[in-house]
């Protein structure tokens, strides 16, 4: 009985971890706005955020434009020690931005 419960829970976890596909496979271009985000590293302390937008009405692209902004680079600055135990220099540990989009 106990082994069958463990097996059932493992099967549920495996099913839940499968790769999810997007809800819509194709963009409805009847009346929609397509937005894509892109980041590019400018230097160790700043990132360029680019937002591309395409507006569609009745299946045709009406307008397309891009906006950009400079953001501080996420990450941590850590002091490094040499083999003698002295703190030598500061090193920037690079991290990436995460995107969360809310649609109303």
3D architecture notes:
Helix content is 14%, strand content 51%. It has one helix at 2-16; strands spanning 31-43, 46-57, 60-72, 75-81, 87-94. It is mostly beta strands and 104 residues long. β2 (46-57) and β3 (60-72) form a beta hairpin. The mean pLDDT is 76. The strands form two sheets. It has a three-stranded antiparallel beta sheet with strand order 1-2-3, with no helix packed on it. Strands 4-5 form a two-stranded antiparallel ribbon. The protein has one helix and five strands.
What's the short version?
The protein has 104 residues and is mostly beta strands. A hairpin with a 2-residue loop joins strand 2 and strand 3 (60-72). The protein has one helix at 2-16; strands at residues 31-43, 46-57, 60-72, 75-81, 87-94.
Question: What are its keywords?
Answer:
two-stranded antiparallel ribbon; 1 helix; 104 residues; flat; three-stranded antiparallel β-sheet; 5 strands
Sequence stretches where pLDDT stays below 50 over 5 or more residues:
none
Strand content: over 45%
Structural class: mainly beta
Task: Give the number of DSSP strands.
Answer: 5
Helix content: 10-25%
Name the average pLDDT.
76
Task: Report the major sheet.
Answer: 3 strands, antiparallel
- Looking across the biggest beta sheet, what order are the strands in? 1-2-3
N-to-C SSE string, H for helix and E for strand: HEEEEE
What characteristic shape results from the CA principal axes? flat
Radius of gyration: 23 Å
Total number of helices = 1
Intertermini distance: 47 Å
């Amino acid at each position: 009985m106990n082994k069958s419960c463990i097996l059932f829970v493992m099967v549920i976890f495996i099913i839940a971890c499968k790769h999810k596909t997007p809800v819509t496979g194709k963009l409805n271009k009847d009346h929609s706005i397509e937005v894509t985000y892109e980041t590019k590293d400018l230097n160790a302390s700043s990132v360029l955020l680019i937002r591309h937008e395409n507006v569609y009405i009745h299946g045709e692209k009406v307008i397309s434009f891009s906006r950009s902004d400079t953001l501080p680079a996420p990450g941590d600055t850590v002091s490094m020690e040499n083999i003698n135990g002295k703190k030598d220099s500061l090193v920037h540990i690079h991290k990436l931005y995460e995107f969360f989009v809310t649609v109303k």
